[in-house]
Amino acid sequence: LEEQLRKSDTLNVVGELAAGIAHEIRNPMTALKGFIQLLEGSVKDDFSMYFNVITSELSRIESIITEFLILARPQAIKFSEKDLSIIMKETTELLNAQAILVNVQMILDIEDNLPLIYCEPNQLKQVFINVLKNAIEVMPNGGQIDVKIKQKDEDNLLVSITDRGSGISEDKIKRLGQPFYTTKERGTGLGLMVSYKIIEEHQGQVDVESEEGKGTTFHIMLPIRQ
Ligand code: ADP
Ligand code: MG
Predict the structure, then answer these.
(1) What's the CA angle centered on 110, arms 201 and 152, to 5 degrees?
(2) What is the Cα–Cα distance from 204 to 200, expressed in whole angstroms?
(3) How many CA atoms, within 13 angstroms, populate the side-chain half-sphere of residue 123?
(4) I need a surface site. Which of 38, 81, 157, 187 has the fewest CB within 10 A?
(5) pTM for the full predicted model
(6) Which residues contact 49 (CB under 8 A, 6 or more apart)?
(7) To the nearest whole number, what is the mean pLDDT of the chain?
């Protein structure tokens, strides 16, 4: 419990900071991107490799800002009754092109007649995108990701996303969701922090089950009603 409390304290502080900083950085970023593109056309070929680096670093900053902005927008959250199966189908369709490129198949197994749940659909989409992206990223040689949704009990739905990737050691599972915790060369370490925060706002719960070398399952429990 103490661990959970500490986590949510960190999230609040980060959220407040994010609101201010993200907006301040976005505007100059847009200007930078525009002028870099202009310059690229009028500079010798020898420098083109620098432009690639600049462009890719700029887009990295952008993705960090985007993830921060999601954190910083709790006021805009609009809860309503939605069909989780539709939210999930739309999400996997969105990611399908990226998955197919690395030979990953997402297999959906969704129980019939699920009750509508009270949620903020765009935020839940963001969670599924983050978790599915991580799953795709740990299976560079392809394979299958299982996406299951079922009614767990009278009050809760359960989403389970299973990959067959590297797995996560027990001590590292504790670090998931910490701001900037990443093991990837080009990771932001913000995807899971944002996701945990969103699930917390839905009064839901995330459980991670993992075996090193075998794969990982993210269990996301969501209450049906408020
Ligand atoms: P990022 O993807 O930018 O690194 P995340 O917050 O999405 O940031 O994830 C943080 C870290 O958690 C990842 O760098 C990785 O080490 C670990 N992780 C998350 N999902 C998985 C997964 N499905 N399998 C193995 N490791 C994972
Ligand atoms: Mg990620």
Answers:
(1) 55
(2) 6
(3) 27
(4) 38
(5) 0.78
(6) none
(7) 88
Using CA atoms, how far apart are residues 18 and 23, in angstroms rounded to an integer? Answer: 8
Atom of ligand 1 at shortest range from CA of 195: 6
Kindly give the distance from the C-alpha atom of residue 182 to the centroid of ligand 1, in angstroms, as a whole number. Answer: 6
Closest CA to 131 of 158, 155, 160: 160
Is the C-beta atom of 215 inside 6 A of ligand 1? Answer: no
Decide whether any atom of ligand 1 lies within 6 Å of the 162 Cβ.
Answer: no
Identity of residue 33 = K
pLDDT tens per residue across span 8-34? 555 556 666 666 777 788 888 889 988
Pairing of strands 104-110, 143-153: parallel
- Strand (E) positions, the chain? 80-82, 104-110, 117-119, 143-153, 156-163, 205-211, 215-223
Residue 163 Cβ inside 6 Å of ligand 1? The answer reads: yes
